């Protein structure tokens, strides 16, 4: 059995991306939440190359920081062009024999299948170089390709003659090279062109004359959506976004209005969940089965368990328990944990707080740094004063607590199980279980409704001053 020569891959990601008119390197711009360069890496990974190099240069540290572990960055100190980028990558490959797959970092729709076919075609043809091309109705901005008897010539639009500009066959920036051929040819190219850069494309003519270079045509033109400016970015993202939505719909998720629904690449959604218009599901968000999410909801890194409902709301690092209900107009901040069937309703903000099973924070509340037991009910406008301007303190609210409207809980404070707080009370001392407290600051006046035992009622009665009418 003959062993096929090893495959090495390099993603070119060192350029600035001038046409993006951005302070951020082009390959860092995201599509559906994933940086552009990571799409190229994801497409290469299934080919299992010996090495997966990424040429970094412009904002190298930022690009390195987002690379997956299988990618090995190599630094191109000065951005002298795509030819120089490949030269830098070659210096990181010791092997003499093998195939070098070169992938421009700005083609987020290029599939692993296409890359695999390019490499296979290259191996089978036994040529020095193979370049992926496509015939596009609008070739503007891309290198034009002319192929003749084993020689491929690519001319950049800037250098193209009027006749060459008429060519619709374009270079997609993906190549397979025999290592010895590319090593030799890369040393021969010069920068005598309009922007004084080393053009990788110039190697094709050199290799072609020595050992043949051929083109390979892209099958699915959707993959030819390369990103050079922000309108290309939007176009490519739109295609990726629709693919993500289609995958969820195939898995049994109802998406009411795909046009206005934005779901990032890493999001999971269970069966029979309905996603309503204007919804953004981002980052590490996970939605269970039988949920209703939206309309107009934006969840980032948020978990929603089965059967929950989240309407017109924002979640950031929150966890919504099964059958819980959120919104309309709730803001769940990091560390929020809603238990089963809990409710956070209109105009409520919750942060770093555990809300127990079936507990309700239904209207106009801020609850931060708190622990709420099961079956509690916070009245409209209940506020935890968790911050005294210097430090944050916690509020503990026991099972079955009931707070009246406009209750202020001055942390640190504990409200005992089953206690009641009267409307407008300002609580700055712990309230024992089962007591009703009122006022400002709130003081205990008697047993909470329904908590009075015969014994304790009698004791309260004895303490009470007699009135004139009482004998
Ligand atoms: C390149 C091709 C062009 C092709 C097009 C497809 C050349 C000379 N031209 O042009 O024929 O149609 O891609 O997209 O190659 N990069 C570096 N270091 C550098 C310069 C660029 O790493 O010094 C990286 C960029 O980050 C980018 C890729 O190489 O990911 C392509 O660079 P770009 O400037 O976009 O090349 P184009 O002008 O589009
Ligand atoms: Ca480009």
Q: What is the structure about, briefly put?
A:
By secondary structure, the protein is α/β, with parallel strands linked by helices. It has 2 domains: 7-230, Alpha-Beta Complex (Spore Coat Polysaccharide Biosynthesis Protein SpsA, Chain A), CATH 3.90.550.10; 253-463, Hexapeptide repeat proteins (UDP N-Acetylglucosamine Acyltransferase, domain 1, 3 Solenoid), CATH 2.160.10.
Strands, helices and their partners?
Blueprint: E1 7-13, E2 30-31, E3 34-35, H1 36-44, E4 51-56, H2 60-66, E5 72-75, H3 82-90, E6 99-104, H4 112-125, E7 129-135, E8 144-148, E9 151-155, H5 162-165, E10 169-178, H6 179-186, H7 202-211, E11 213-217, H8 230-250, E12 254-255, E13 262-263, E14 268-269, E15 274-275, E16 280-282, E17 286-287, E18 292-293, E19 298-300, E20 303-304, E21 309-310, E22 314-316, E23 319-320, E24 325-326, E25 330-332, E26 337-338, E27 343-346, E28 348-351, E29 354-355, E30 360-363, E31 366-368, E32 370-372, E33 377-378, E34 383-385, E35 395-397, E36 402-403, E37 408-410, E38 413-415, E39 420-421, E40 426-427, E41 435-439, E42 442-447, H9 454-463
Parallel strand pairs: 1-4, 1-6, 4-5, 7-11, 12-15, 13-16, 14-17, 15-18, 16-19, 17-20, 18-21, 19-22, 20-23, 21-24, 22-25, 23-26, 24-27, 25-28, 26-29, 27-30, 28-31, 29-32, 32-35, 33-36, 34-37, 35-38, 36-39, 37-40, 39-41
Antiparallel strand pairs: 2-3, 6-10, 7-10, 8-9, 41-42
Helix pairs in contact: 6-7
The protein binds uridine-diphosphate-N-acetylglucosamine and calcium ion.
Calcium ion is lined by residues 104, 106, 226, 228.
């Amino acid at each position: 059995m003959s062993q096929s020569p090893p495959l090495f891959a390099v993603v070119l990601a060192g350029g600035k991306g001038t046409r993006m008119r951005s302070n951020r390197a082009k390959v860092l711009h995201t599509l559906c939440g994933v940086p552009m360069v990571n799409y190229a890496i994801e497409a290469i990974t299934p080919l299992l190359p010996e090495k997966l190099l990424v040429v970094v240069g412009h904002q190298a540290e930022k690009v390195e920081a987002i690379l997956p572990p299988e990618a090995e960055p190599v630094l191109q100190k000065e951005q002298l062009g795509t030819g120089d980028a490949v030269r830098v990558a070659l210096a990181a490959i010791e092997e003499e024999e093998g195939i070098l797959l070169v992938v421009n970092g700005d083609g987020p729709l290029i599939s692993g299948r296409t890359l695999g076919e390019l490499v296979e075609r290259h191996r089978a043809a036994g040529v020095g170089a193979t370049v992926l091309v496509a015939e596009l109705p609008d070739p503007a901005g891309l290198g034009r390709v002319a192929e003749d008897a084993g020689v491929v010539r690519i001319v950049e639009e800037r250098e193209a003659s009027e006749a060459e500009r008429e060519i619709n066959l374009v270079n997609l920036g993906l190549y397979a090279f025999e290592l010895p051929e590319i090593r030799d040819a890369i040393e021969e190219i010069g920068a005598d062109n309009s922007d004084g850069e080393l053009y990788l494309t110039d190697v094709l003519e050199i290799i072609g004359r020595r050992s043949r270079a051929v083109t390979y045509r892209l099958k699915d033109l959707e993959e030819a959506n390369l990103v050079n400016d922000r309108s290309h970015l939007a176009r490519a993202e739109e295609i990726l976004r629709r693919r993500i939505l289609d995958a969820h719909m195939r898995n049994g998720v109802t998406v009411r209005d795909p046009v206005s629904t934005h779901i990032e690449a890493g999001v999971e959604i269970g069966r029979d969940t309905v996603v309503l218009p204007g919804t953004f599901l981002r980052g590490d968000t996970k939605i269970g089965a039988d949920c209703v999410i939206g309309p107009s909801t934006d969840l980032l890194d948020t978990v929603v368990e089965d059967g929950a409902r989240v309407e017109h709301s924002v979640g950031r690092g929150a966890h919504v328990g099964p059958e819980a209900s959120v919104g309309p107009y709730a803001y769940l901040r990091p560390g929020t944990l809603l238990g089963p069937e809990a409710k956070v309703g209109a105009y409520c903000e919750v942060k770093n707080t555990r809300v127990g099973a079936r507990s309700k924070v239904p209207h106009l509340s801020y609850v931060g740094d708190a622990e709420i037991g099961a079956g509690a009910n916070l009245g409209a406008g209940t506020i935890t004063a968790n911050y005294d301007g210097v430090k944050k303190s916690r509020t503990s609210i026991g099972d079955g607590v009931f707070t009246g409207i406009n209750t202020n809980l001055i942390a640190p404070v504990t409200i005992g199980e089953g206690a009641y707080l009267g409307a407008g009370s300002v609580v700055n001392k712990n309230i024992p279980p089962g007591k009703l407290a009122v006022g400002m600051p709130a003081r205990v006046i008697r047993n909470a409704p329904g908590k009075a035992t015969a014994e304790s009622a009698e004791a309260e009665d004895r303490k009470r001053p007699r009135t004139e009418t009482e004998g």
